[in-house]
Amino acid sequence: MLKWHHACGMVQKMRLRDLLEFDEIVIQAHDNPDADAIASGFAVYRYLKDNGKEPEFIYGGRNFIRKTNLVMMIEDLNIPIHHVENMKPPQLLLMVDCQYDGGNSAVFPAENVAVIDHHRISTELPELSRVQTHLGACSTLVWSMLKAEGYDIRHNREMVTALYYGLYTDTSGFTEIVHPLDKDLRDETEYDKLLMQKYRNANMTLEDLEVAGAALLHSDYLDAYRVAIVKSAPCDPNVLGIISDLILEVDAVDLCIVFNVQKGGVKISVRSCVEEVKASELAAELCKGIGSGGGHVGKAGGFIQMDLLTKEYLAFCEQQNFSPRMEYDEEGINKQPTASGIKAVIEQRFREYMDDTDILYADECRLNVLNAKSFCPRMIPWGYVPLTDLLPEGTPVTVRTVHGDVNATVQEGIILTVGPRGEIYFRRETEFRKQYRIYPEWDFHLADAEYEPIIKASGSETVIIPLDFAKVCVPKGNKVVYAKQLDRKVKLFKEGDAKLYSLGRVGDYLLDSTDQLNGIHIMKKERFEKTYRMAKEQEEIKAVIFDLDGTLLDTLEDLKEAVNAALLSMNMPVCTLEQVRHYVGNGVRRLMQRAVPDGENNPKFEETFAAFKEFYGGHCLDHTKPYPNVLELLQELKERGVKTAIVSNKLDSAVKELDKRFFGGYTTTAIGERENVARKPAPDMVNEAVAVLGTERSKTLYVGDSEVDIMTAENAGLSCISVTWGFRSEKFLKKNGAKTLIQTPLDLLYLI
């Protein structure tokens, strides 16, 4: 029985090591395997072989691989792909560069199914899935998964060459590359250059040449924009690029859009030879909301989903009072726009892009209280590192981020700051130190990012990962910047360079920030609203109540030694550290009930419990210490005026002693177990803490490490944050109702 879950967007759960649980594995490409599908399946095949498996690599359908470049690739690189019409159900069927029952691959029975793909999710996905639709090729996804496993592909020339060629073909000769992982695969692989040249020279067949010639004879030209829009017959994606390049050679053409219909959608190729229009930007606009597009300044491309294009076309016809011109797809199942209908949608989007855009110049544009609103940075953690700590002054570098490449020169007094999602900004050190609290002993990590930025020194192979050196800094929140939300598209040309501009869409923000080297710039809506708040807006959380053992303090070793000292004194078997880890959480009496054989029914229980309390009272500080970065967390909460308290099932005297020893000056109150006061998970002690703090429950968080803490927060009417560094595993916490989990103390600051 196959297990499925519905998903959309991006699914990143599966790792290659998860496949090793199965013995009989079949890798399946779609029915018309291209270089990307062949390369992706081959790389996974080699990984499985190197891990002791004997996988099979297949494809189905009516067609056989005949294209010259693909036949060469398979023979040269020893790729064991073969065609099948039916097969015995394997233990695992791994779909690569396609999805199970997605319409472009034969459906074979299997005990279990897994998916690795970069296309839009078109069906329900199995639990074992890894789909990243923002990548230019499935080859990139497999390459990144191999790297995550520590698998060394550098010396596997056949695999590397296949993956490189897969990316090359799926991004029209790299012209449609947008994501930094695609760029990394392109830049870092040591492929076979002779074979690549061989495959490039075999990309076009005589049939492709005929397709290109026919397309050149049937182009539409919009004189007002100097743009040609061309419909091509089905062909290899590279042929679309060749057609675009040829048309751009015409003296009257500055912009070119070539498209053809493929299974499930429309492939487009975009070219520009004018500074005012970036091909990458135009491709993104043509595909926005109905597909994905991007690439380079001069060359780009994209893919539009047919179902979404059809909806837009029907709405367009209704608005214009036209009768839709529809036809059935190649399988005769679904209706879709004819070529003229598709061209109408592309032309309409093109006109909107060209006609509804304002031009601004950064050196002439300034924001102030009269034409913008005041904002302050949200007090979320950033990473920081002086550039000269990474490379010598004067070194030209390229900083690669998920938002693009940034060229810079290492200078003294410039701080590289890294945002929680991997965004990069250069700041002047003098302004930086005024605006940020810095924690030089606190290591920084990203909150939620699909790519970790890297720095490449120009002219060398040196690659530096700044996160390996970045420490934590937090905006003080008092820096006022001016920004306004855009109600029209804007092209902002950079200071000192009339050729470079950035595009702002409706809803994005124009921001004037003097502490950044780029001064006035455009920031995407989502990123701006997560980074800034209105100047008069207050932070929501006013107080945090912490559990003690397993949350703030690592007390496990001292508890274990006290338990075992008491047990040994009574000639009872001792406990392991893991046993004690599972026994704690409900107070020390409950701990000893679990540790003593037969619990309270043991006639020596009370004597053993007394021995525990005596030993622990004299040795509770032998090994106990705050978890890493807990003190920095408490310091930051204090700096921003967030009150803190401790509530524990440990004896009240011990709680107060530990609080005084480790957290004096940070907490408002520390409350432990006392007579006539119910222990957690009863809310009594938490209610007492809330009263002392004097804050509203809606603005108070509870943080703990156990199932008892989850129940306590619920009983007290507080939101609960569960930590994974304490006495319970993440799996256990989720099973017991944890809704929000954090991996490190730093993560709490992202939630406040």
Structure overview:
With 752 residues, the chain is an alpha/beta fold. Helix 8 (237-248) links the parallel strand 11 (227-231) and strand 12. Helix 2 (68-76) runs antiparallel to helix 6 (193-200) and helix 10 (306-320) packs across helix 11. It is globular, with a radius of gyration of 31 Å. The model is unreliable at 1-10 (pLDDT under 50).
Topology record:
Blueprint: E1 4-5, E2 11-12, E3 25-28, H1 35-50, E4 56-59, H2 68-76, E5 81-83, E6 92-96, E7 113-117, E8 125-126, E9 128-131, H3 138-148, H4 157-170, H5 180-188, H6 193-200, H7 206-216, E10 219-222, E11 227-231, H8 237-248, E12 255-262, E13 265-272, H9 279-287, E14 291-295, E15 299-305, H10 306-320, E16 326-328, E17 335-337, H11 339-355, E18 357-361, E19 373-377, E20 382-386, E21 396-401, E22 404-409, E23 414-418, E24 424-428, H12 429-435, E25 436-443, E26 454-457, E27 463-464, E28 471-475, E29 481-485, E30 489-493, E31 501-504, E32 509-512, E33 520-523, H13 525-531, E34 532-534, E35 543-546, E36 553-554, H14 556-569, H15 577-583, H16 588-595, H17 605-619, E37 625-626, H18 630-639, E38 643-651, H19 652-663, E39 669-673, H20 684-693, E40 700-704, H21 707-716, E41 719-723, H22 730-735, E42 741-742, H23 745-749
Parallel strand pairs: 3-4, 3-6, 4-5, 6-7, 7-9, 11-12, 18-30, 35-38, 35-40, 38-39, 40-41, 41-42
Antiparallel strand pairs: 1-8, 2-9, 10-11, 12-13, 13-15, 14-15, 16-17, 19-29, 19-34, 20-23, 20-28, 21-22, 21-26, 23-24, 25-28, 26-27, 29-32, 30-31, 32-33, 36-37
Helix pairs in contact: 1-3, 1-4, 2-6, 3-4, 7-8, 10-11, 14-17
